[in-house]
Amino acid sequence: MKLDSKIPEGPLAEKWTKHKFNLKLVNPANKRKYEVIVVGTGLAGASAAASLAELGYNVKAFCFQDSPRRAHSIAAQGGINAAKNYQNDGDSIYRLFYDTIKGGDYRAREANVYRLAESSVSIIDQCVAQGVPFAREYGGLLANRSFGGAQVSRTFYARGQTGQQLLLGAYGALNRQIANGKVKMYNRTEMLDVVLVDGKARGIITRDLLTGKIESHSAHAVLLCTGGYGNVFYLSTNAKGSNVTAAWRAHKKGAFFGNPCFTQIHPTCIPVSGDHQSKLTLMSESLRNDGRVWVPKKAMPGLKGIDAMKVPEADRDYFLERKYPSFGNLVPRDVASRNAKIVCDEGRGVGSGLAVFLDFTDSIKRDGEDTIRAKYGNLFDMYAQITGENPYKGPMMIYPAVHYTMGGLWVDYNLMTNIPGLYALGEANFSDHGANRLGASALMQGLADGYFVIPYTIGDYLANIGWADKIGTDHPAFNEAMQSSTDRMNKLVNIKGKKTVDEFHRQLGLTMWEYCGMSRSEQGLKKAKQIIQDIKKEFWTNVNVLGTSMELNQELEKANRVADFIELGELMVDDALARGESCGGHFREESQTPEGEALRKDDEYVYVSAWEFKGENQPEELHKEELRFENVKLTQRSYK
Amino acid sequence: MKIKLKVWRQKNKDTKGAFKTYNVDHASPDMSFLEMIDVLNTDLIRKGEESIAFDHDCREGICGMCSMYINGHPHGPLQTTTCQLHMRTFKDGETITVEPWRAKAFPVIKDLVVDRSAFDRIQQAGGYVNVNTGGVPDANEIPISKRIADEAFDAATCIGCGACVAACKNASAMLFVSAKVSQFALLPQGQVERMERAEKMVAQMDAEGFGSCTNTYACEAECPKGIKVANIARMNREYLGAMITSYDASSGGGGE
User: Fold this and answer.
1) Residues of B with Cβ-Cβ distance to A158 under 8 angstroms
2) What pLDDT, on a 0 to 100 scale, did the predictor assign at position B256?
3) Do A500 and A594 belong together in one domain?
4) A502/A590 same-domain check
5) pLDDT confidence of residue A637
6) Does A142 fall in a domain?
7) What total of structural domains would you count in chain A?
8) Residue B251: is its pLDDT beyond 60?
9) Chain A CB contacts of B193 below 8 Å
10) Is B83 exposed, middle or buried (0-12, 13-18, 19+ CB in 10 A)?
11) Which of A279, A412, A533, A602 is packed most tightly, with the most Cβ within 10 A?
């Protein structure tokens, strides 16, 4: 099968405008005859559901949490990028486009990224109109900051809770349509399968998490806005409930999975404190603007707090400043993370051994404690609360953690997967961030997809199929899918094995982290593949899920998700093996420069990998979508 | 550290619940309260007993899903969410009592899980600005003073966890509702529907069976996000204004 990205012809800056004109429209009077399913209510899902309902479509929206407001977009801290150039510092749509393509290490589509940059300006207008309380200057205009090493100040923010404020804006828009009767909202409901008839997406199968009831829903189109899959690593900055199940079930029904091995590991997280650890907490990377990262030159096991302050300057290794004199502590996330791993692997880690210092002593000396408190007070408080240590009295300790997944369901320019009628938006798709996402770009993409892309592109599909082309839930395909979902739930509660779901999940996570995390090698990946296959075999014979499938059963929910993470883990390993280059967050040990930096191989790997499921326990087939760069010249990143 | 836990166990909304006591013998001071429950749950499963059901998601204090009533306080003794409460807050050997949120409008679903959908319905009654996607003015068209923007943010930071309701002897939702009413009463974008919004949200709040406010300020004392009772005063003013002008949307306009 040939992958058609449907990228419009014409000059970059005109593609989206022309494409919007060429897309078919649905007659306003007919819109109410269409039904659209939206799974997930984060930034992408809530904004899409609300915007489509405003246009007149009937929407059914689903979330597994007790309220759509709790989707994990809520936890995003830093901000949202937009090419407004309010600061008169040289920003433009083209610059945001260029930075995003380059930051993604040239593994994203030019046309998609340009559209993202174009949409960014409308997002800010929209959110302000909704009453999102962005930070402002004394004159009353919007404030911006430079974020993640960007050379312009284009990041809009609402203290350290930008994701929360944007999501509550979208949640308000969604609530308005629920009140209008245009959105029917299903809380505490999880999608278990997508239903295809004649190759088109026709609906979904869900489980009511309170009663266990398996239900079917039909529609003209299905939108998966179900977020990323960082929890495949068990420990990540994702919410506990974040999962890959919706995307994975779609994959097993034929939707291609794009770049599954592209994961982002964030350098400034609070280190693991023990085996009980259930999740990792991110601290905004803005901390690296004033903190200096170091470890002792010679191993000093257990070093932390006040003792660290006594280490003489000559015995410290400020390794980022040493290796990257021009960018120093502000190197991109992947570089900062990998270097923290290197020094810890050398045995020079501090605290538990898996941590490096982030030291504010010099900034406090320079600017005073009050200034630092004003800038980062909430982060310092959070650190103190979680670790029990006072970060004003000794350096913070940080360690990288899995944060975001650039990979996801493969989609074309219209955000449609290769299955007609099935779309993927936000983090759930692979599309815009290439091999590495820039800070403050996730919120931008989720909202661009939901507010400003899908309302146009879905109309073309719906107009083409026509409103009469709908299949009811009485079709045998729905019954079959319901039966197989019911069987799966019953199977999970009837294994009655010896190990808890979390034990399997933790084992999978450790394997992924060790072999498919910050650094990957052919040998390690091959080993990981074997381990994951063993975990899968054992899971289906030895997992212990108590209770029944017809009640609120949180162990069953977890088991159902972990089973999918195990299968996804294997595909990530396959993808990492197939990509024999280093690019962005994907570092292959076999592909590095003599100085140990990532080495991209543009003559072999300028493509999106799109994996096709070929049946249970069969190897998946790799399809390649070649990426064409007509506007930017590919260069090696250098931060020396 | 060793902990004795008295936990509310209730099979479902139709059966009667009761406290059950468990020993957690290997808690670490660095664990969050929820991680301690995770450890207990693993022990329970190994013993063939069903795990304790509880709501949680982000585990970083922002989603508002966790909701445990610990030793007589929503989210426990500190002004945090349950997920940000750590075991070092407790003494070795301590007995800790854990209950679900207690409020008529938040019926218990199972163990520590309650139904907070009433909060969603209040927001649906008017917790938004009526604008469609697209066709809005440039973001910098209307300047907003930093003071007002900051004040609106302070109200908007509510996470909808329901601690205010659980803390209140009347199970009043005034702090929650007033946070949203305040955010929009402060911002220029919220002015157009200001009256209607207060009226509709308060009406829905009453319909859900929340109690009245008698100014004990327990809500403010327990709110993990520090939402101020001044918001309640503002909502009362908004509501009074709305009632005096008696704007009735359904009849197409009233006495303004």
Assistant:
1) 153, 156
2) 40
3) yes
4) yes
5) 79
6) no
7) 2
8) no
9) none
10) buried
11) A279
Q: From the list B35, B42, B55, which residue is nearest A66 (CB)? A: B55
CA A537 – CA B117 distance, rounded (Å): 40
Q: What average pLDDT does range B31-39 have in this prediction?
A: 97
Structure tokens at B77: 């003794």
Say which of A65, A141, A279 has its CB closest to residue B143.
A141
Question: In CATH terms, are B3-110 and B116-251 the same topology?
Answer: no
How far apart, in whole angstroms, are the C-alpha atoms of residue A425 and residue A423? 7
- The token duo for B121 is 């319905």
Residue A493 in contact with partner chain B when CB distance is under 8 A: no
Q: Which of A279, A553, A556 to mutate to test the interface with B (most CBs of B within 10 A)?
A: A279
Examine the predicted complex and report whether its ipTM is higher than 0.90.
yes
Distance CA A570, CA B229 (A): 52
Half-sphere exposure of B68 (CA within 13 A, CB side): 30
In a domain, A324, yes or no: yes
Residue bearing the bigger pLDDT, A289 or A478: A478
DSSP letter, residue A450:
I
CATH topology of domain B3-110: Ubiquitin-like (UB roll) (3.10.20)
Task: Please give the structure tokens belonging to residue A320.
Answer: 């980022």
Whether chain B has a CB inside 8 Å of the CB on A66: the answer is: yes
A516 is a domain residue: yes
Distance CA B73, CA B76 (A): 5
Asked if residue A365 lies in contact with residue A229, where contact means CB atoms within 8 angstroms, the answer is: no
Single out the residue in A355, A378, A403 at which a domain terminates: A403
Instruction: Report how far residue A281's alpha carbon sits from residue A238's, in angstroms, rounded to the nearest whole number.
Output: 9
The shortest C-alpha distance from B5 to chain A (Å) reads 18
Whether A558 and chain B come into contact, CB under 8 Å, resolves to no
Alpha-carbon distances of A528 from A233, A510, A512, A540, rounded to whole Å: 13, 10, 7, 19
Test B183 with A131 for CB contact under 8 angstroms. yes
pLDDT digits (tens, 9 = 90+) for A322-339: 999 988 998 888 899 999
State the CATH number of the domain containing residue A496. Answer: 1.20.58.100
CATH code for position A330: 3.90.700.10
Are the CB atoms for A131 and B184 separated by under 8 Å?
yes
Question: The pTM is what?
Answer: 0.97
Interface of A with B in 38-57 (CB under 8 A): 47, 50-51, 54
Six token digits for residue A314: 């000559």
**What is chain A's alpha carbon radius of gyration, rounded to the nearest angstrom?**
24
Contact B134 A122 (CB under 8 A): yes
Residue A636's pLDDT is 86
CA distance A605 to chain B (A): 36
Report the candidate in A581, A593, A640, A630 with the shortest Cα–Cα distance to residue A261. Answer: A581
What are phi and psi for residue A567, nearest 5 degrees? -65, -40
Q: Read off the pLDDT of residues A156-208 as tens digits, 9 standing for 90 and up.
A: 999 889 999 999 999 999 999 999 999 999 999 999 999 999 999 999 999 99
Spans of all domains in chain B: 3-110, 116-251
Query: Which of A246, A207, A251 lies closest to A226 in space, CA to CA?
Result: A246
- Please indicate, yes or no, whether residues A394 and A507 belong to a single structural domain of this protein: no
- CATH architecture of residue range(s) B116-251: Orthogonal Bundle (1.10)
* Whether A333 is catalytic: yes
User: Which residues from chain B sit within 8 angstroms of residue A81, using beta carbons?
Assistant: none
Place of tokens 């284009």: A154
pLDDT for B204-235, tens place per residue? 999 999 999 999 999 999 999 999 999 999 99
CA angle, residues A582, A585, A586, in degrees to nearest 5: 40
Q: Tell which A residues from 385 to 404 touch B, by Cβ distance under 8 Å.
A: 385-388
Q: Are residues A507 and A379 in the same domain?
A: no
The answer to whether residue A546 neighbours chain B at the CB level (below 8 Å) is yes
Chain-chain contact of A178 with B140 (C-beta, under 8 angstroms): no
